[in-house]
Design brief:
single chain, about 250 residues, mainly alpha
Length: about 250
Amino acid sequence: MEKQLFNYLLRLADSSLILGHRLSEWCGHGPVLEEDIALTNIALDFVGRTNSLYEYAGKVEGKGRTEDDLAYLRTEREFFNNLLSEQPNGDYAQTILRQYLTDAFEIHFYEALTKSKDETLAGIAAKSLKEIQYHLRHSSSWMLRLGDGTKESNTRLQNSLNEIYRFTGSLFETDENDSVLIAGGIVPELTGIQQQWQKDVDTMLEKAMLNKPENVWMQKGCLQGKHTENLGYILAEMQSLHRAYPGVNW
């Protein structure tokens, strides 16, 4: 079961790392100072979670790899983050939408993960859940402000929804790796979580005066290391310093 757990931890950590990096791109570029600080703090939450997950993954693997090795010394096809996390920030509406869709999933997923029979994983989930509750409040409030705001803000949010909703299917990808961990009570089964997520999202879209895209072909493949072109650019930027100066310490 150790191999399956290692793979699963990489998925969680990769998604947190890539979304945290995306959010960090807003530092110094937020629409207002308060939001600049808010998004930077949320990015730090994701990176902090990433560190815990990679550290635990390294211990489970038992090959001496550190969290830095796992973050900076793997190639694009060795990353298993969900496809939603790697989508561009776009304008502020797209960033908020991407964040809300993620938060609405994570609030249910990490709550279920706190019940894991793996005490370390349950502990990471419990700490993360406190942060996710804030993330969801933040993104939900902005969904309502933008969706039920001006014609311009509603249009921008709707256009963003039309563009990135197709990547939400990757939040719920599973494979045979999951079956082993689910049977062992280590991770939750995603069918119920997906139903809760869909209900919450549908309710939010209605309140925000948005129309859910119909007949969407969901983009998947992240569990096989298949990604959009965006991930390669992210890794090239994110990994450049560590690869240029391996083992460097500040």
